[in-house]
Inverse folding.
């Protein structure tokens, strides 16, 4: 879903960059508090994993492929604000080293593919913690559904940006983008749940996205202390 | 329950990422992705341009330059990119921790 230069009107690209810069900037401001020593290599390896898996395009219907975005996964592993930094690193690297995704569209791409998913799943995790039973199943269900929704949100924003830019009428691009990404989002959900499960099985304490508590017996709760 | 040390976890995860990018990405689907497909179907794919800053991209389109075999070029690009992104990500985190996380008093030094 990398938007190249030329798809977006300059004003739209600039407007989309505002929330991206704000979220990444806030993440940078908070980084001193949220980054402990072990999170330094974890941030690097999360970025590397997302970059690698983004290369693994999988086929979906109609001669089309999709790939992981990763914003939701990064937020579950590192928390939403560090995830914004991770996604900015990945998407900037793709733009400047691999010519994948535009330079003027960089802010829009970070917003669509990173910030929205990261902050969205952060909110979903907070809500789930309050409203749903704190089980491993709930945690993984929120991860999977949130990952799918993050792709749909990114596709929606991308379509709106294209429509407002006057590149293509919104009423034609929106259903097309949502339709194909409803399928691609399933891949995002599968990869996200698999990766989160693997971390839960090996080092559940490394998962930030939680304080979720009440994981199966013998599995320590990930993240912060459970206070309830 | 005995847990693997953090450094081993990071090493394993990095090895998995590098392995996927090097050995699997050459066999990934080369079909257009969702946005490219919609852009082609709806006639705005040709609006895409290359920014001047991207004219001299080190590894354009995930193909490492100077390698004739397309699959090898993609695998090498994946290897270099994954390792590079790890170093940049960890470097950024390390820098931010130094900048923002330094004990009070040290930050203004």
């Amino acid at each position: 879903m990398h938007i190249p230069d030329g798809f977006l009107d300059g004003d739209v690209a600039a407007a989309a960059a505002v929330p991206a810069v704000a979220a990444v900037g806030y993440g940078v401001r908070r980084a001193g508090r949220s980054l402990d020593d072990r999170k330094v290599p974890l941030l690097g390896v999360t970025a590397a994993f997302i970059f690698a898996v983004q290369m693994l395009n999988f086929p979906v219907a109609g001669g089309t492929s999709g790939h992981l975005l990763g914003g939701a996964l990064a937020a579950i592993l590192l928390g939403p604000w560090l995830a914004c930094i991770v996604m900015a690193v990945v998407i900037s690297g793709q733009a400047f080293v691999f010519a994948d995704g535009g330079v003027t569209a960089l802010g829009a791409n970070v917003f669509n593919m990173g910030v929205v998913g990261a902050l969205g799943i952060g909110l979903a995790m907070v809500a789930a913690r309050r409203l749903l039973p704190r089980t491993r199943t709930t945690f993984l269900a929120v991860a999977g559904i949130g990952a799918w929704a993050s792709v749909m949100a990114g596709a929606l924003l991308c379509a709106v940006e294209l429509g407002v830019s006057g590149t293509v009428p919104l009423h034609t691009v929106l259903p097309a983008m949502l339709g194909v990404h409803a399928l691609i989002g399933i891949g995002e959900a599968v990869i996200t749940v698999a990766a989160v499960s693997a971390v839960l099985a090996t080092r559940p304490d490394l998962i930030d996205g939680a304080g979720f508590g009440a994981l199966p017996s013998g599995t320590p709760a990930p993240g912060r202390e459970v206070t309830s | 329950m005995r847990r693997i040390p953090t450094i081993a976890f990071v090493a394993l995860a990095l090895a998995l990422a590098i392995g996927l990018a090097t050995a699997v990405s050459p066999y990934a689907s080369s079909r257009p992705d969702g946005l490219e497909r919609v852009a082609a179907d709806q006639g705005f794919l040709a609006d895409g341009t290359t920014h001047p800053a991207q004219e001299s991209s080190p590894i354009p389109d995930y193909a490492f330059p100077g390698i004739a075999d397309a699959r090898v070029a993609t695998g090498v690009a994946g290897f270099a990119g994954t390792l590079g992104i790890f170093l940049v990500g960890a470097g950024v985190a390390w820098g931010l921790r130094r900048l923002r996380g330094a004990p009070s008093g040290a930050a203004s030094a």
Notes: The longest strand of chain A covers residues 58-60.
